Amino acid sequence: MAAAVMELYPNAKHTIGPAIENGFYYDFDFGDEKITEADLPKIEKKMRDLASSFKSFDKVEVSPKEALAKFKDNPYKKELIEELKEKGETITFVKSGDFVDLCRGGHTENPDKELKHFKLLSIAGAYWRGSEKNKMLTRIYGTAFASKEELDEYLTNIEEAKKRDHRKLGRELDLFTFSDLVGSGLPLYTPKGALIRRLINEHVENVQAKQGYQQVWTPQISKADLFKTSGHYDKYKDSMFRVVSNYSDEEFFLKPMNCPQHTQIYASRPRSYKDLPIRLTDFAMLYRDEKPGELSGLARVRAFSQDDCHIFCREDQVDAEVDRALEMTREIMKTYGFKYKYRLSTRDPKHPEKYIGDPKVWDKVEKWAEKIMERNKIDHFDGPGEAAFYAPKMDLIATDGLGREWQLSTVQIDFFLPERFNLTFTDDKGKEQRPVMIHRAIIGSPERFLMILLEHFGGAFPTWLSPVQVKVLPITDKVNSYAKTVFDSLLKEGIRVELADKNDTLGAKIRDAQMEKVPYMVILGEREEKEGKISVRTRDGKDLGQKDLDTFAKGILKEIAEKTLL
Ligand code: ZN
After folding, report:
1. Which of 75, 76, 86, 192 is the most exposed place for a label (fewest CB within 10 A)?
2. Domain spans of the chain, in order of start
3. What is the pTM of this model?
4. Residues catalogued as catalytic
5. 2-147 sits in which CATH class?
6. 160: pLDDT confidence band, cut at 50, 70 and 90?
């Protein structure tokens, strides 16, 4: 792309162009020339013309002097070369066709054969080296794949992702809203959105209850001292909202997580080895301060909850507890049809100061986590630097219906918070011991999960999650009373049903129900009334024909109970 741009715009200056997830970009200084997305096809065509002349990528080492001479008219490359020179690093050029660039290398071996399936996607402004003090450059984004099929699938997915944007769907389906008076990053859930959020939580709650988890309820604010003891005050203070009391000078914070408070429930009574494990769950609201510019729909918010759980157990119980958590996660991911893998999030070896506790304990727990993954035959990869400040993490990364990845659940084996809060239990010999604290979430935040589900399903939720499961559509006023009887009996079965008895054409009623993504429409005319039947249609336009009301209701109830994916 840089070669093509430089041929088409000889006065442009190319700067930096890395590979990124799903593609690449390159930043250019086009001087006074204005480049828009309308220019992308022209650049793409030039790329295709040039590709055949790119037989290989040849890397050569050059001296700083040679490098500076080559790029004497490009202040950006000169800045990079000066830096490399200062650090004493090797400077390399890479040549392909007639194009030479300052580059550390890492290329395909047969460019003319392999560089076929690419597309330029968009243009954005970007400051040189990310600093607003510098000049604004033009960034061109593109993507490339090994095959046409993969490229096409990726392009279809980005188109679909635009249609499924949760902010757009959230508005259309009336699930949540924001108000300037309430504040940015503070979503308000409407009845339909609140219902889905509650159903997501209930599902987790039910699975957890079967595994002996107990729900607790804790306040939104805590004294600064709590967070000083846990270590959050030191590591996290800038992300917490400070709360001021009118009656004392005491400093309080809105809580950004539940862990520190749960240690105090554990510490509230003496614990014996026989009491363990104690599994506490909490759906309390949490608050984290975020830069207003970074808030976006439900993706980045300041108020949210988590399906947060803390297990206090003996060291010999850790394996069984983690296995159990992984098993519940498996069950819940299956319900939503998510594929996933795990990331083993460990310390950043370059920044040991970011973590509390004894490095020897870290070594032990990091190895332990890996063994657990292997024992459970879980697909996993390494994530150095992704650990929490108090423990390594087993983070679940789910892939949604559009091939995008999201981090959802986490399991952490923590030896340090119990130590900081001086938690103990009495062992079978009457000696005081330290419990281990396992932090565990399955879906993570139900609010963020709602956003992911909204885009994953494109708003067409499975029946059990749909705010309205059935819509009854009378064809004419004449059957309104029959429609009311059908509506009443579905309602009595506990099905979430709506009656479209406004004076509208059937076509308009069907369109409305489809827009609202109601899974089933019950269509009633004089014939249905006479035969005592109903006609059923799905939201994707399938005609299921005439049915008995009873059979239909039973089918829906089964689908809801089994949380069937449609
Ligand atoms: Zn925790």
Report:
1. 86
2. 2-147, 172-457, 463-562
3. 0.79
4. 259, 288, 306, 308, 310, 393, 439
5. alpha beta
6. confident
